[in-house]
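In the design runs reported in the main text, the only information available to the sequence generator was the tokenized backbone. The following block is the verbatim input for one such run; it is reproduced so that readers can re-run the procedure and compare outputs position by position.
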């Protein structure tokens, strides 16, 4: 009876919130768990769960994996809205189960917050875990990067039968496998991406085993790449799923050669940026873990529809507007490197919020290489700043070398969208999470915008 009551309440509140234009993702799950604290454990029975965690790339990697499952004919659902805490994951399972708690699908692809993973993993039987990477993120919530790694390690220990898909290029992620009995599939990139890249502080400059300084045969970005410690020999393992060659990278997509064990594919990734190449490799590793067909693994990165706010593209008044979520130095620098390595003449919007979902500590913006934008200033006719902390973003740009006259500050999102779209030029909008939600809401008045759960 508690299961049925919890299910009914979850659905009622989901319906009401979505009817009101809200996502309806976390609150319904929170209410359901109050009625039945073990609800997720009940709902997860009989469902093969593939879980994606890590600092950056969780949402896009999950969407590519979901697409590969569908191409292979596997019935599955996912938490598409990105509500990746215990409450949001419970709501996703509830919405895809009968009132009595029986799942309507044989498989689930679940994005999980890295701090929540250790708790979620106690409720679900997880068959495959993908760890995308580990970076410094939201210091007010996650603390030091070692805390994030330890939290994920605890979650993995709760999944002794799961296949682990780990980023071979991330020294912190590789270290998670030590002492665990799980089968491991490593994915990675075998060479550097860009000729011109952002300057980045390493989040993992020293060996996790002996504290010696790493040397790199090559780097892709931040602390990712061919790391090795000359002191103790700890080094990047050979990648089972490897990006062997990057054929093309442009403003909309990339063409790569991908090796999956002894099979080779030429794949189109239908989102731009080096980080999305990593996401495609991570998804391919999950597909290999599940034994998916070659067609499903190679076709998913091209055919999946993308995720809200992740290089999402809109057209307003003839202007192509691309929204690219940013939330920490590593991800922000990768977006800037992508923009710097295109030849597009476009306006740029930097929108900074400090609400709970963004992280209330915004000191991380001083670790972003905004200075590199000076090299492409002639290709960016207008710089806009917006958001709750627009003044701090403007100050950061001033210290990067921009003149006050270079920067246009607009707080009102409706005015911002109208202003940026009036010239007909392409626009890149780089918002933090809640700024992205507000900007999408403003754009929905002028262009079709999918709900975050679609």
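Verbatim output:
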């Amino acid at each position: 009876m508690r299961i049925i009551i919890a299910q009914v309440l979850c659905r009622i509140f989901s319906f009401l919130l979505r009817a009101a234009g809200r996502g309806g993702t976390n609150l319904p799950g929170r209410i359901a768990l109050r009625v039945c604290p073990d609800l997720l454990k009940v709902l997860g029975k009989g469902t093969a769960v593939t879980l994606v965690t890590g600092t950056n790339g969780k949402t896009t990697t999950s969407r590519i994996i979901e697409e590969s499952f569908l191409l292979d004919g596997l019935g599955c659902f996912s938490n598409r809205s990105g509500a990746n805490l215990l409450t949001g994951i419970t709501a996703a399972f509830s919405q895809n189960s009968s009132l009595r708690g029986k799942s309507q699908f044989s498989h689930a692809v679940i994005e999980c917050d890295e701090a929540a993973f250790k708790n979620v993993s106690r409720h679900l039987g997880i068959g495959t875990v993908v760890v995308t990477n580990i970076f410094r993120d939201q210091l007010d919530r996650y603390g030091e990067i070692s805390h994030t790694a330890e939290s994920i390690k605890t979650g993995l220990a709760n999944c002794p039968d799961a296949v682990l898909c780990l980023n071979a290029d991330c020294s912190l992620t590789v270290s998670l496998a030590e002492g665990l009995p799980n089968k491991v599939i490593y994915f990675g990139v075998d060479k550097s991406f860009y000729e011109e890249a952002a300057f980045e502080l390493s989040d993992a400059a020293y060996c996790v085993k002996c504290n010696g300084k790493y040397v790199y045969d090559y780097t892709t970005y931040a602390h990712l790449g061919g790391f090795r410690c000359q002191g103790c020999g700890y080094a990047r393992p050979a990648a089972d799923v490897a990006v062997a060659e990057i054929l093309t990278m442009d403003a909309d997509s990339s063409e790569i050669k991908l090796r999956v064990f002894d099979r080779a594919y030429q794949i189109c990734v239908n989102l731009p940026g080096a980080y999305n190449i990593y996401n495609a490799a991570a998804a391919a590793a999950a597909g290999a873990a599940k034994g998916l067909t070659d067609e499903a693994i190679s076709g998913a990165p091209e055919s999946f529809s993308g995720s809200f706010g992740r290089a999402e593209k809109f057209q307003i008044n003839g202007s192509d507007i691309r929204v690219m979520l940013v939330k920490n130095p590593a991800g922000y620098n990768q977006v800037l490197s992508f923009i710097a390595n295109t030849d597009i003449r476009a306006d740029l919007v930097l929108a900074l919020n400090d609400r709970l979902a963004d992280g209330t500590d915004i000191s991380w913006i001083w670790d972003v290489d905004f200075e590199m934008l000076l090299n492409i200033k002639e290709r960016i006719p207008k710089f806009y700043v917006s958001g709750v902390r627009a003044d701090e973003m403007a100050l950061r740009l001033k210290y990067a070398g921009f003149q006050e006259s270079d920067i246009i500050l607009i707080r009102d999102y409706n005015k911002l969208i109208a202003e940026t779209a009036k010239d007909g030029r392409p626009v890149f909008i780089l918002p933090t999470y809640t700024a992205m939600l507000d900007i999408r809401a403003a754009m929905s008045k002028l262009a079709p915008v999918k709900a975050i759960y679609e």
